[in-house]
Amino acid sequence: MDVNVTLATWSNLLIYSAMAVYAIAFLLYSNDLFGGRKLAAEQQTTAARRSAAKAGRPVRTSRSSVAVLDRDDDDASEEAGPVREAAAPGRRTSARMATSLTVLAAALHVAAVLTRAISVMRVPWGNMMEYALTASALAMLVYIIVLYFSDIRYLGTFVSGGVLITLGLCITVFYTPAAQLVPALQSYWIWIHVPIAILSTALLSVSAILALFQILKARTEKKDLTTGLWSMFARVPASEVVEQLSYRIAAVGFITWTFTVIAGAIWAEVAWGRPWGWDSKEIWSFVVWVVYAAYLHSRATRGWSATQVAVLNILGFGTLLFNFAVVNVYFDGLHAYSGL
């Protein structure tokens, strides 16, 4: 089947367009995260003073907190709501603009994936470029979906920045001209095994970024760090809240990765007559599974701190990246379908 060169070219143009919009969103998210922190602190202080003035109580302010003195527990619980509300989103114009642009960039990104697929009339994950292109689009969709239920705009700088870098690699280092699948990949299992692997990659990517924020937020809580770059964590919820979200996403990612390994073994049985052959890709896929299994187990084990567990999450993501960027390119094996 011939390649539609026009559509393949449009796919590349859409990638460049998405990169441009992601770059603007990245700058706006960065402005919100690093530049909007003083406004949030001022709003928190002002809200607490107004609340105290109405109640006729004095206010004590510090670099990291605002508290109303001489109140009992009932009064404290009644006044905490307005203070938290004012301290949270505020007038975050940059964040709202960045989110709108992120949705636009994601639409361009998905359009790039679809036009690439239509240009060759097959699935858009036949090589490393297409895998990274599709996985990064899905990671951004995961971010947008989670954002609908929970305000995680503090992740926007890193998610948009990571996707921007990935698209840059897709169009340069990983770039592969549109072509038909190699014979070994012309199987219905490519519709099952690879999409689940892509979904796993997207979920575990977002979870790892959350784990990083959890570690840094916990450090600010422990040492009361509020100056310099540490002040950006005023935007971030309590480390326990971030940890819960990171864990839930990673748990789903672990389930889908488990299915990825199982589906890969079934495809190997169909293609090569054996479910497991200690191929380099098979080994590292299993290593990823083991690390994330250890992460989930350690979270349920007493004696492990939340920070130690989060480090395992990040380590698992590191093995996932190694499995993709190193094993696919530099290791010999039956899974050498990078296209590079």
TrEMBL record:
It is found in: Membrane. It is a multi-pass membrane protein. The keyword Transmembrane helix applies. InterPro entries: Cyt_c_assembly, Cyt_c_biogenesis_CcsA, Cyt_c_biogenesis_CcsA/CcmC. Residues 50-91 are annotated as: Disordered. Keywords: Cytochrome c-type biogenesis, Membrane, Transmembrane, Transmembrane helix. Residues 126-335 form the Cytochrome c assembly protein domain. It holds the Pfam family Cytochrom_C_asm. The keyword Membrane applies. The chain crosses the membrane at residues 12-29, 101-119, 131-149, 154-176, 188-213, 245-268, 283-298, 310-331. NCBIfam families: cytochr_II_ccsB. PANTHER family: CYTOCHROME B_B6 PROTEIN-RELATED (PTHR30071:SF1), HEME EXPORTER PROTEIN C (PTHR30071). This is C-type cytochrome biogenesis protein CcsB.
